[in-house]
Every structure is written in C-alpha cells, then in structure tokens.
Amino acid sequence: MVIITANRLIVNGLFEGNAQCDGVEVLAGGKFLGKVISKELMIEAKAEFEGESKIKRDNETPIKKEPLKDK
C-alpha cells in the first residue's frame, strides 16, 4: 500500500493507497481508492472516489507508515 504525504496531490489516473495532504484533487477520469486526510478534497464530475475521507486539522498526527511487504 502506498502512503503519500504532500502539500497537494492531483490524481489523473489510478491512485491506490493513503494520502495526507493539504489539498487533494481527483480529476475527471481519475480514481482514488483508499484513505485521505486533507484540508481540501475536490472530486470532479466523472472522477471516482472509494474509501474514507477525514478533515485534516493543524495538529493532525501523520498516517503511520508501515514497512512494505513483499507480495
């Protein structure tokens, strides 16, 4: 599973994982599968979002990173 920490994340394809960002934007044709913690979440028409969304607070604890496992 991918974990992204960034100021801004723009999805214009497939993103599968967790994201903690100030802003997340899923563009038309984009697909977000996972959990997002963000101050701003924008999902355009024809975009897909499947998962969990939580508002990011200034004192938010970062998503815990787990070691990658071989498949």
How would you characterize the overall build of this protein?
This protein has strands spanning 2-11, 14-26, 31-43, 48-55. The protein has 71 residues and is mainly β. It is built from no helices and four strands. The chain has one domain.
What is this structure's SSE topology?
Elements: E1 2-11, E2 14-26, E3 31-43, E4 48-55
Parallel strand pairs: 1-2, 2-3, 3-4
Keywords:
single chain, 71 residues, mainly beta, 0% helix, globular, four-stranded parallel beta sheet
**Overall radius of gyration:** 12 Å
The neighbouring-strand order within the major sheet is 1-2-3-4
* Termini Cα gap: 11 Å
Q: Report the principal-axis shape.
A: globular
- The proportion of residues forming helix, as a percent range, comes to under 10%
> How do the SSEs run, as a string of H and E?
EEEE
- Provide the β-strand percentage band: over 45%
Domains (count): 1
State the total count of DSSP E strands.
4
Task: Briefly note the structural class of the backbone.
Answer: mainly beta
**Largest sheet geometry:** 4 strands, parallel
- Contiguous low-pLDDT stretches (5 residues minimum) are none
Summarize the structure.
The chain is mainly β. The protein has strands at residues 2-11, 14-26, 31-43, 48-55.
